[in-house]
């Protein structure tokens, strides 16, 4: 019962993040909203895994969290410098 | 002066865990979700994260492109080599049963080697694709990367 309540409670939060991703006036609002949505997706996968008693879902949630983080970094770098290979000046 | 200190430190902390998780997915694939392709993708994600945060010049010093060019066909060679080995030992192509004295052990060994080949190829291939995208406009006519360390005056074109 507890996991069902948690899963249902996640839906409004995900909806709010999605609304901010669509409405967000700047690109940083959208990036943050998509990152938040990804975090909620990780939570949803974990809750669904415990609900159906499939412990393998934790592995999938971990992989999703990693890809979410790296994707956010890539998008932010692309909007910051417009180039994935950009190299900062090295310290002299 | 270096910027993005938090990002650098978190990345340094996170990359070993990502690579470890990739190896876990690779070798635990018999019992849980995972396998060669997924492990290769996660491994490549770790390397791509390094290249994103520390820049392409630093990354191409850590991950040499000629090593990638060897690793991509090496994985396919491992895969096909297991198949040819089972042919030589008297079975069909990729017939794992003949790889060891006991068919069960042969199955274990064959799956392990084939998934290792897939993982190596996918990890190296995805890293190569990222290098190809990120290195656009940064290559000399021979195809080698132009790094700031080699040519400090020459600014790479966007």
Description:
Chain A has 92 residues and is an all-alpha fold. Chain A has one domain. The relative contact order of chain A is 0.11. Chain B is mainly α and 158 residues long. In chain B, helix 1 packs antiparallel against helix 2, helix 2 crosses helix 3 and helix 4 packs antiparallel against helix 5. The longest helix of chain B has 32 residues.
Percentage of β-strand residues of chain A: under 5%
The average pLDDT value of chain A, as a whole number, equals 88
Number of domains of chain B: 1
Order of helices and strands of chain B: HHHHH
Rg calc of chain A: 17 Å
Q: Helical proportion of chain B? A: 55-70%
The rough form of chain A would be described as: flat
Percent of residues in beta strands of chain B: under 5%
Low-confidence stretches of chain B: none
Helix/strand/pairing category of chain A: mainly alpha
How many beta-strand segments of chain A?
0
What structural class results from the helix and strand content of chain B? Answer: mainly alpha
Kindly, what is the distance between the CA atoms of the first and last residues of chain A, rounded to a whole number of angstroms? 60 Å
Taking all residues together, what is the mean pLDDT of chain B?
A: 85
- Rg of chain B, Cα atoms, Å: 19 Å
Q: What is the H-and-E element order of chain A? A: HHH
Structurally, the number of domains of chain A stands at 1
Tell me roughly what share of residues is in helical segments of chain A: over 70%
Low-confidence stretches of chain A: none
């Amino acid at each position: 019962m507890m996991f069902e309540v948690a899963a249902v409670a996640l839906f409004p939060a995900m909806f709010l993040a999605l609304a901010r991703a669509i409405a967000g006036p700047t690109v940083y609002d959208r990036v943050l909203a998509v990152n938040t949505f990804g975090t909620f997706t990780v939570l949803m996968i974990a809750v669904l895994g415990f609900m159906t008693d499939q412990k393998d879902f934790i592995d999938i949630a971990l992989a999703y969290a990693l890809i979410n983080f790296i994707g956010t970094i890539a998008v932010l770098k692309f909007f910051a410098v417009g180039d994935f290979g950009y190299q900062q000046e090295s310290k002299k | 002066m270096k910027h993005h200190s938090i990002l650098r430190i978190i990345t340094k902390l996170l990359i070993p865990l990502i690579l470890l998780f990739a190896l876990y997915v690779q070798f635990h694939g018999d019992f849980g979700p995972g396998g060669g392709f997924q492990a290769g993708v996660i491994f490549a994600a770790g390397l791509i994260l390094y290249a994103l945060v520390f820049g392409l010049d630093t990354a191409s010093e850590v991950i040499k492109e000629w090593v990638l060019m060897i690793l991509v066909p090496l994985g396919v060679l491992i895969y096909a080599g297991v198949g040819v080995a089972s042919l030589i030992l008297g079975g069909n192509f990729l017939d794992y049963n003949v790889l060891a004295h006991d068919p069960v052990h042969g199955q274990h060994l064959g799956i392990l080697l084939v998934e290792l080949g897939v993982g190596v190829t996918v990890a190296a291939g995805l890293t190569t694709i990222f290098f190809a995208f990120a290195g656009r406009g940064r290559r000399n006519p021979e195809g080698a990367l132009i790094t700031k360390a080699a040519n400090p005056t020459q600014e790479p074109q966007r």
